[in-house]
Specification:
This protein has 195 residues and is of the alpha+beta class. The chain has 5 helices and 11 strands.
Length: 195
């Protein structure tokens, strides 16, 4: 994966067409940001993922996800949110140890089949120094996910879950007994399509 080419594609994807006004969500919708942290590994780039801690009231409790969370009043912007959340959740100082490549288009949050009034902006970073993530209180583990294997279809899987009286079958990836599905799958798939 050519990171400079990816940066150019991210810029093009996040720039609205001439004369268009970007409209993401409506007033009152909550905002959040996630960090897609890439590192170059032998043969293929890898993406940092985490397993969220099991917590009552957390819609994504126990799931595989990206470092990120809700914007707070003290955040200058959503990029600041992504950087703050990466430090809190996985102990990485992205402002110091990574280069911002760009952002993917914002996606509307969904949790277990329910569309939420929250929009998530994914920011893509490339490691510029060796990174040693450590789970904070909101995560129980971190790991590096092989993007080339996902893109090649080697990790293709389906995830089934029940919601009330309905069973849903969703595309997913399975890597070392971990299943990446839902919103994380959607965001990472967007990155892979762009790359």
């Amino acid at each position: 994966m050519d990171l400079d080419a990816l940066s150019r594609r991210l810029e093009a994807a996040s720039t609205p067409p001439q004369g268009a006004t970007p409209l993401v969500g409506v007033e009152g919708d909550r905002r959040a940001a996630v960090a897609l942290v890439l590192r170059q590994a032998p043969g293929s780039p890898e993406l940092l993922l985490l397993r969220r801690a099991e917590r009552a009231g957390d819609r994504w409790s126990g799931q595989i996800g990206l470092p990120g969370g809700h914007a707070e009043p003290g955040d200058a912007d959503l990029l600041a949110t992504a950087i703050r959340e990466a430090l809190e959740e996985v102990g990485l100082d992205l402002a110091r140890d990574a280069r911002l490549l760009g952002r993917l288009p914002s996606v509307q949050a969904k949790a277990r089949g329910v569309v939420l009034s929250m929009w998530i902006t994914p920011f893509v970073f490339a490691a510029e120094a060796p990174l040693e993530p450590h789970p904070g209180p909101e995560a129980v583990e971190t790991f590096w996910f092989p993007l080339a294997r996902a893109r090649a279809g080697e990790l293709a899987w389906t995830h089934r879950y029940r919601r009330e009286h309905e069973e849903r079958v969703l595309p997913a990836w399975r890597f070392e007994e971990r299943v990446v599905w839902g919103l994380t799958y959607e965001i990472v798939s967007g990155l892979l399509r762009l790359a």
